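Worked example

This section walks through a single chain of length 259. The input is the sequence exactly as stored; nothing has been trimmed or padded.
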Amino acid sequence: MKQYIVDAFTEKVFHGNQAAVCVLEEWPAKSLMMSITRENNFSETAFTVREGDGYRLRWFTPGGEIDLCGHATLATAFVLFNFYEKESERITFHTMSGDLFISRHGEHIAMDFPAYECQEVPVTDQMAEALGARPLEAYLDRDLLLVYDDEAIVREMRPDFEKVAKIDGASVGVAITAPGDRYDCVSRFFAPNIAIDEDPVTGSVHCMIAPYWAARLGKSTISANQASARGGEMVCELKGGRVVILGKAALFSVAELML
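Given that input, the structure is written out below as tokens.
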């Protein structure tokens, strides 16, 4: 089995978010995919098989399979465009979250995702205690989004991950965001309940971050920075109920898994 390791949402290796990508002719057992994922120990390992007019795509964290992942989708598209679909301009991924439409966009890869439909929820003491700073607002869909007014709070935050995992509501993780100086917004994402204390750069969570800032700033295109130690950048464009996320990627390695 061939495996590629790609750094997503960056132009150079050792930055952005790592994802392993396995391009397969048929599906292995789910137990094997979980074993490979835990062996890699990245936030995501993606598995893809050609299906119909596109590819079936599945994403696994060390804690289990999830329904949407942006950086591993970007990494998979990068691998397919560069090694398997060199003449193609578009790829459709069939996923648990429906069809995702991917295209070349100059030096970027554009990913068309469904926007989250966030509902405002009360700010609680539990949130403040887990993150170490009380948010101004809180919103919930698959993930919990906490809004702050100062970029420094987001960049310097040192959460209590045991308490983050116990926050009510979020099925996957907790995102924090604030307005940025060089970017429209900055963010970080914590998901200890699926064995990821902090995800370096998270495309899927921008399906809730981008709509929030688009509405607040009155603009349809948002520049975003995820302020983890590795760091990453993306541009998000709101189109109706969809979020088009543009990012770059860099290949770190190609390997043959001895299975």
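What to look for: The domain at 2-114+245-256 is CATH 3.10.310.10 (Diaminopimelate Epimerase; Chain A, domain 1).
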